[in-house]
Amino acid sequence: MSKSDIEQVAQLEKDIFSDPWSASAFQEIIEDESWGCYVAVSDCTVVGYGCYYVVDVESHLANIAVATDYRRKSVAKRLLEIILQKVSERDCEYIFLEVRPSNTVARAFYEKYGFKLLYRRPRYYHHPEEDALVMVRYLKKETE
After folding, report:
1. Which of 64, 85, 110, 128 is placed for a possible disulfide with 50 were both Cys, Cβ 3.0 to 4.6 Å?
2. Residue 143 pLDDT
3. CA atoms of 14 and 38, how far apart (whole Å)
């Protein structure tokens, strides 16, 4: 992700999520070396993005989003694969994420890629209020 992508990323964020990150939030994270962000582009248009951050041996998948017309075309899969590769290269032992319990499509996607339910975080989401399911994928065999 580069500065020139932020306007499109912020619009996609707004189109997809009920409690979206601002353009300035994306600007801040692309300037922070503990974060990594990738975009998927088709015909000069951002059709998906994924962001993560790393602290020591822990990584966190902050978000993956794909435009409606590009879902079920392996965009999210490719973004996740890149992120998993990058956090593994940084010697992370695991990666966490939060997902709404009502988002059964996302939950199934993450489970397909080895994420397991760790615990439930009450009232994590707003607009509408909902708990979060915290999921984890262990990246090194000895940490499982």
Report:
1. 64
2. 47
3. 17
